[in-house]
Amino acid sequence: MSDVLVVGGGLAGITAALDCAEQGASVTLVEVRRRLGGAAYSFERDGLQMDNGQHVFLRCCHAYRALLERLGSSHLVAVQPRLSIPVLSPGCPPARLARGGLPAPAHLAGALARYPHLSPRRRLGAARSALALMRLDPSREALDAGTFGHWLARHGQDEDAVAALWDLIALPTLNLPAAEASLALAAFVFRTGLLSGSDAGDIGFHLGTLQAIIGNPAQAALERAGVEIHLGWRAERLLRTADGFELHARAPGGEEALGAATVVVALPHDRAGGLLAPLLGPHAGRSAPLESSPIVNLHLLYDRPVLDEPFAAGVGTPLQYIFDRTDAAGAPPGTQYLAVSISGAIREMELSVEQLRERFLPAMAALLPRVRDARLERFLVTREHAATFRAGPGSAMLRPAAQTAVPGLTLAGNWTATGWPATLESAVLSGHTAARLTLAEHPAGRTRRTARRVREPARGLR
């Protein structure tokens, strides 16, 4: 029997398990997949190492960056010296949104003044809206009732201004366009990432694959901390016992039962409710209305370089963000592998691979002129149906706190009430919170064991 049982091996579960183990608790972690990392994972296809999606972060994501230091993989990420977003639009010269050296919010004044995709009148209106956004308090419940798009419209931002500027930030951070996003979460993102400090919004990139940066080093770190890891175990029932809790899981060899004094449930919101229902009753369904928002990723290998920037945003095109992942993927010499991330991809989720080709390949040629002379070697689509919770109005009241009504049972995950949208930072912060609450309820070390091992799934189990 362990002091702590962590259910889920994503960033939240990894963080909670490490925190508890390093404070002397005996910890067991179960994960349904064959690897750690949760929604941030990699896969191999036709000799290329690909990530399921492009998970960028910001300089202000201190918890996530500290976790990478802890895992020993921080050398595989890089943060821009200064925020700089290349912005491409068909038939237009490349533009750039880059911060200057002035204190916030003046650090963005020069970039906005020179931004060619807004008229001078719209630039002035955008500056006024940004100043008004700084005065909002994201913690006010009333803000979560409205949409960011409606607020922008009331502040003079028309559809063209929203598409050319505000959605460049809203879509990748909230996984929704401004028209559908919660005003509270949008205010948090813009205030925290762009308006609170001059360097807060500098963008961080994963130079290697997510498996090399998160999954593999997390497993090694957990092993060093003495955590017992069960990969390929699907949690099915969680019961209360006289000594704590008992988890019944479907393992490669059949059903297994694990006992623990306390439990951290670090599963996605669409899976957590079923496991929690026997313990929390009606309260387990609080997050059930918390809908999901999808992301579609296109993976394109060209026979030659077609993009000079490490990444670029698109305006006036269905292409939102394009990333050069050539080196990380191990692409053949002379080729270029580009990953296209489509957030809030409700429409794209319904399209076939051929329909996606018909929609996006001409858009690539219109945006990147060198594509017209290049040969497309491979085209792959990956879809994340429930990539994030839907960050729409009313989502704040549906996000549960880490502490539950059952003593010894805590929640973790980027969908819990961290204040952040569904980001890498939110997941890590939730893990820290869950561990802190768990250790406060149950002092560590009561059942600590000296030997730990990783139990791998049998081959062929999916």
Description of the molecule:
With 462 residues, this protein is α/β, with parallel strands linked by helices. 32% of the residues lie in helices and 24% in strands. Strands 1, 2, 10, 11, 12, 13, 19 and 20 form an 8-stranded mixed β-sheet that branches. A 7-stranded mixed β-sheet has the order 8-7-15-16-17-14-18. Helix 1 runs parallel beside helix 8, helix 1 packs parallel to helix 13 and helix 2 packs across helix 13. The chain is globular. The two termini are 27 Å apart. The C terminus is likely disordered.
Summarize the structure.
With 462 residues, the chain is α/β, with parallel strands linked by helices. It contains 13 helices and 20 strands. α1 (11-22) packs parallel to α8, α2 packs across α13 (424-441) and α6 packs across α7 (183-195).
Main attributes?
462 residues, Guanine Nucleotide Dissociation Inhibitor, domain 1, globular, 8-stranded mixed sheet, 7-stranded mixed sheet, Polyamine Oxidase, Chain A, domain 2
Strand count, sense and barrel status of the largest sheet are: 8 strands, mixed
Overall 3D shape: globular
- Tell me how many strands there are: 20
Q: Whole-number radius of gyration?
A: 23 Å
Mean pLDDT comes to: 93
| Proportion of residues in extended strands | 15-25%
CATH class descriptor of the largest domain: Alpha Beta
Instruction: Examine the coordinates and then state which fold CATH places here, giving the name of the CATH topology of the largest domain.
Output: FAD/NAD(P)-binding domain
The CATH architecture of the largest domain can be named as 3-Layer(bba) Sandwich
**In the residues, how many domains can be counted?**
3
CATH-assigned homologous superfamily of the largest domain: FAD/NAD(P)-binding domain
Annotation field: number of helices:
13
